[in-house]
């Protein structure tokens, strides 16, 4: 069985200041697997769980969270 992350996963990674390399290290997966997940490609369910746990266990950096939210504001 496979799982495809939504774009919210990329946002969750960004607000924690995680790089693909660091996330791969924390989740014990390859950087290419992290790259695929961040691009919205399907990954094995066990891999998705590892990635989700690694992200969930990494604290949010408030300044990055605000920056990401401001980045999504429509200023037109």
What can you see in these coordinates?
It is a single chain. The protein has about 80 residues and is mainly α. The chain has a single domain, classed as 434 Repressor (Amino-terminal Domain) (Orthogonal Bundle), CATH 1.10.260. Helix content is about 60%, strand content about 5%. It contains five helices and two strands; from the N terminus they run βαααβαα. It has helices spanning about 5-15, 20-25, 30-40, 45-55, 60-70; strands at about 1-5, 45. A two-stranded antiparallel sheet has the order 1-2.
Q: Largest beta sheet, briefly?
A: 2 strands, antiparallel
The H-and-E topology, N to C, reads as EHHHEHH
- Compute the CA-based radius of gyration: 13 Å
- CATH class bucket: Mainly Alpha
Unreliable stretches: none
CATH architecture title: Orthogonal Bundle
- For the record, the count of structural domains works out to 1
Strand order, main sheet: write it out.
1-2
Strand content: 5-15%
- Amino- and carboxy-terminal Cα gap: 42 Å
Helix content: 55-70%
By secondary-structure content and strand pairing, the structural class works out as mainly alpha
Overall mean pLDDT = 92
According to CATH, what is the topology? 434 Repressor (Amino-terminal Domain)
Shape: globular
